[in-house]
Design goal:
426 residues, 24% strand, nine-stranded mixed sheet, alpha+beta
Amino acid sequence: MTVARPFCAVRYDTSKVELTNVIVPPYDVIAADERETYFTRDPHNAIRFELTRNAADEASADYSEVGEALASWRASGVLLRDDEPRYYVMRQRFTAPSGAVLERIGFFAELGLEDYSERVVRPHERTLAGPKADRLKVLRASRANLSSVFLLYKDKEQELEAVLARALEVSTVANAQDDSGVEYTLATLTDSTDIEVIQFYMSASDTVIADGHHRYETALAYRDEQRSNATSPNPNAPYESTLAYFANAYAPGSLLLPIHRVVKKESCAAPPTDAQWASGLSGWEQKSVSMEEGASVAALLEKHLLPLAAKPAFAADDAEGTLRIFWREQELGDELVVRILEREVLKSVFGLDSEAIRDGAVSFPKSAERAASEVRTGDGAVALYLNALTPDDVFRVTGLGEVMPQKSTFFYPKVPTGIVFRDHRK
């Protein structure tokens, strides 16, 4: 059972700061050359809870300034702590790559930590030791959950939708907009009946980590440290939980985007010829689509690749003016197209095994336009475009105790840092 409790959040006092000026993307998507922008935007920008000003200082940082800033901002009233536990409902209104305007509504809660072996909170990807060691330093220094884990739950019948929408109608407390144009609305949910509905629903649900695997595993490591130092077990101790944002994987605004692949120039002397494609992809069908100068790659993929989403299919682009569409005449079933691509395309056609991929032979752009740009500017030899996975794919694979291949899917939009915080102290 998933323990998703109401909690007393620490939040910016929006009479003292403009929320738009202090929220930031998650630490792992902020480029080194973007840090200064956030540091100078506002003296209370939440990047001070996430990263050093200079990337070169990260390795030696103990992040003591994070704890100092948190204490100072609370003392000055820039940050206030709510006095009664509640859920925090967040709506994100955004424009999808297709041009459609969508909304995702989810909620922040205090998540009871469970080891992966319990199969309550499930990972979908593997983690790296370096980022976890860095995030553990932040958690030790701050004794607070300053950025949230992003979890998906199943609600195909939209049972919680009305409860969350009602909170947005009657108790909105803040609004903001980020640099990519995503609009945020935050509301508090305090109705005891609605709280019980959410708690009961989540107690019967398992969840999958969409984003924040390093943060979740860091919280587990911190929990284990604190347990070893405690004189007796305390299941209600703040280190037994972490901050999480929950979204329904099956809601219209829960967007799963594909992450494409670009085979780099140094790994591919020349794009495959027609004969090499045919030899490497025996049994695959193929068609070619002319790419006019300035044509939208996304539009071409929507027209020619998306209809093949139920089949093993991908598109290849070597910047020579033709988009090649490849597919097999069979249903995907329980197979993942990203696994097929690694096994039958990257390995068979390009000679790249999993070690070469891990070592950087392939890049992973999160948009078709970015993938096309890498090929057209000379960094990449061939772009390989994919269809997105589905929520069913994610829950099926993780339900089997498996993880997905590297960079399988991109959950959009991200959950920013700065909307709510969870301090382990009162």
